[in-house]
Amino acid sequence: MNNKIVIEDYNPAWPQVFNELKLTIETAIPDLFLSIEHVGSTSVPGLSAKPIIDLDIVIEDSELLLLVSKNLEKLGYYHEGNLGIEDREAFARSDEFVPWIENKRVWMEHHLYVCIKESGELKRHLAFRNYLRENPKAIEDYGLLKRKLAASEKDRIAYTAGKGDFINSILRSILKD
Question: What is the average per-residue pLDDT within 38-50?
Answer without folding.
Answer: 97
